[in-house]
Amino acid sequence: MVIGIKPYRKRYCRFCDKKIDKVEYKDVELLKYFVTERGKIIPRRISGTCARHQRQLTTAIKRARILALLPFIGE
Q: What is d(CA 45, CA 7) in angstroms, rounded to the nearest whole number?
């Protein structure tokens, strides 16, 4: 018997759950959730997004950075 192991909580894709088909770069409030305070994109294994939406998310974050909607580095 192993003591001290937390029960595993299933992660789910927020975009699939809300039936969001495409991730938009203009939705800055949504994108901020997937970026750390240092400006790094949170990986899929931590955020729980599916592969399809993670690719769209990465592209949207990079586009928002180019248009100065999101910072490249944290403040």
A: 17
What is the phi/psi pair of residue 35, to 5°?
Answer: -125, 135
CATH of domain 14-66: 4.10.640.10
- What are the extents of the domains in the chain? 14-66
CA dist 9 and 68 (Å) reads 36
Q: How does pLDDT run across 39-72, given as a tens digit for each residue?
A: 999 999 999 999 999 999 999 999 999 999 999 9
d(CA 64, CA 29): 11
For the whole model, what pTM was predicted?
0.83
Note whether 70 and 35 are within 8 A (CB). Answer: yes
